[in-house]
Specification:
Blueprint (H helix, E strand, L loop, with lengths): L3 E6 L7 H17 L1 E6 L1 H4 L6 H17 L7 E5 L5 H10 L4 H5 L2 H9 L6 H16 L4 E4 L4 H18 L7 E4 L33 H9 L16 H14 L3 H8 L4 H26 L3 H30 L5
Parallel strand pairs: 1-2, 2-3, 4-5
Helix pairs in contact: 3-12, 4-7, 4-13, 7-8, 9-12, 10-12
């Protein structure tokens, strides 16, 4: 049997190319090699204040983007997290096996709690447990994760092992698939920070659905340096970040890119990179606008995906409930 892959994205805002390179770009290849479950993590999105209407709109957007990126509902299971109630049910059981100390050490919790002191809710603290439940429900073998999600995957592994040791073998212990060069795409204006759609400076990120003119303009304004030395190193973080983008969209090596632009001005490289990114995303943009107009089809994909996901998730949850001592229905 094929190994199982699970991944999810939150509908908490428009996607950047960092989201695309870190996950969606690789999904199409994964679905040809594995049994894949991809979903819209709307339960996760409400740990911070959201407009209800926006969550609904962005959830549909994400399903359309999944399809536009080449995901096939006949090959991959595409669904919305809240449509599969077993996610929340398993999360409660795992919450009761999670240690406060371990959750308090989560890097993202520390960062988000500092930004949202007025909204320091319990969900913000425990959402890594829900993430673990998401993964373990499907007996997941492999999880595509960015550099900043490794800690959450470790929690999922710890909880799987802890449960298995206490109640007997129940969960598959998942492994991570972590990209090397494009694990983290940085801010165009401050390469010390991760690219984020929440940044107030619109020129600090590139959205997945930005048009060609916008992409080129943002790349042209991206921070580099005054060293006039086209190279790939940590002293030239702005340039390194742009080269990482070029690697990801072209599949060329950094050595090939350095050789090509060694004697060129940064402006020539930026112009080529802007065109490369735009051309690479053109097909996805066009297909997205076709899919988003067909709400009936998107709802059909979500419904069929939720049915399949629920069937498989329920098999895991029934085992868990029996082992912890709950009476069968």
């Amino acid at each position: 049997m094929s190994k199982i892959v699970y991944s999810a994205l939150q509908p908490s805002g428009k996607l950047t190319i960092g989201n695309y390179l870190g996950s969606i770009k690789n999904f199409k290849k994964l679905q040809d090699e594995y049994e894949c479950f991809f979903n819209v993590a709307d339960l996760h999105s409400i740990t911070v204040p959201q407009e209800p209407k926006s969550i609904r709109e962005r959830s549909l957007d994400l399903i359309a983007i999944f399809l536009a990126s080449g995901l096939d509902p006949e090959k991959s299971t595409l669904f919305v997290q809240s449509h599969v109630s077993q996610h929340a049910s398993l999360a409660w059981v795992l919450n009761c096996m999670s240690y406060m100390g371990q959750l308090s050490r989560m890097t993202q919790f520390k960062e988000k709690s500092q930004k949202s002191e007025e909204n320091l809710n319990a969900g913000l603290f425990t959402y890594p447990v829900l993430m673990a439940a998401d993964i373990l429900l499907y007996q997941t073998d492999l999880v595509p994760v960015g550099v900043d999600q490794k800690q959450h995957l470790e929690l999922a592994r710890d909880l799987a092992i802890r449960f298995n040791n206490k109640y007997s073998q129940t969960f598959t212990v998942p492994e991570g698939i972590i990209g090397k060069e494009t694990g983290k795409i940085m801010n165009l204006k401050n390469p010390e920070k991760k690219m984020s759609k929440s940044d107030p400076d619109q020129n600090s990120f590139i959205l997945l659905l930005d048009d060609e003119e916008t992409i080129k303009r943002k790349i042209s304004k991206a921070v580099t340096d005054s060293m006039a030395n086209f190279d790939y190193n940590d002293e030239q973080k702005g340039l390194k970040n742009l080269i990482n983008m070029y690697i990801a969209f072209s599949n060329k090596t950094k050595e090939e890119i350095i050789l090509k632009y060694k004697n060129e001005n940064y402006s020539v490289f930026k112009e080529d990179l802007g065109q490369l990114i735009s051309d690479s995303l053109k097909d996805l943009r066009e297909k997205y606008f076709e899919y988003i107009k067909d709400k009936q089809y998107l709802e059909k994909v979500m419904e069929q995906g939720a049915q399949k996901a629920s069937y498989i998730a329920n098999k895991t949850l029934r085992k868990v409930y029996k082992k912890v001592g709950f009476l069968p229905r």
